[in-house]
Amino acid sequence: MTPKQLGEKLHHWHNGTDAVYAAGSTLFSGHGVAPETAQKAIGLLKIMLPKAKAGMHGWGPADAKELAALIKGLGAYTGENAAAKGPKFVLTRIHLDRGGYAKDSGRYYGVGAQLFSVEDEDGKFVEEFRAADREAAKAKVRQRFPGARF
Q1: What is the pLDDT of residue 82?
Q2: I need a labelling partner for 23 at 20 to 30 A (CA). Which of 60, 79, 97, 110 fits?
Q3: Residue 63: CA atoms inside 13 Å, Cβ hemisphere, count?
Q4: For residues 93 and 114, is the Cβ–Cβ distance under 8 A?
């Protein structure tokens, strides 16, 4: 499940302005979730899970299965064993000439630190940014998406 899909599904389970809503909104808009927010959202979803399993509030087995998947999906943003289950990205360096133009496309970026592009597996999240080196670029991505894999 992509971060955007996770965000969309979380919107079915929030109660207004809670942590589930916050996590869903930030994921749907292409941003990562702070570990504290993810943990709070997981806590709220875990309260609902036994109720869904018991058939309360008109919920059923399919709802319980979806809640379990959402809890698992949000787990990637808590920082707990995140490296094993975080979202996967492709990180590419964009090579520039001395004038700040991309060597492959000719697009102007200006001069400065190395330029990188990051894209999720589905190509739905793409961003270009500067960093001192590849490891610094990975660290920047992990600030927004804890547990990100490359």
Answers
A1: 44
A2: 60
A3: 17
A4: yes
Number of CB atoms found within 10 A of residue 110's CB: 10
What DSSP state is assigned to residue 106? -
Q: Quote the strand ranges of the chain, DSSP E.
A: 89-94, 114-120, 126-131
Tokens of 78: 């808590």
pLDDT digits 0-9 by tens, 92-143: 999 999 999 999 999 999 999 999 999 987 777 788 999 999 999 999 988 8
* Of 49, 113, 38, residue with least CA distance to 80: 38
Using CA atoms, how far apart are residues 139 and 134, in angstroms rounded to an integer?
9
Cβ atoms of 116 and 92 within 8 Å: the answer is yes
Q: Which helix (H) or strand (E) holds 95?
A: none
Distances (CA, A) of 81 to 6, 63, 94, 138, 145: 19, 26, 31, 17, 13
Is the four-CA dihedral 11, 14, 15, 19 of positive or negative sign? negative
Domain map of the chain by residue range? 3-82, 87-144
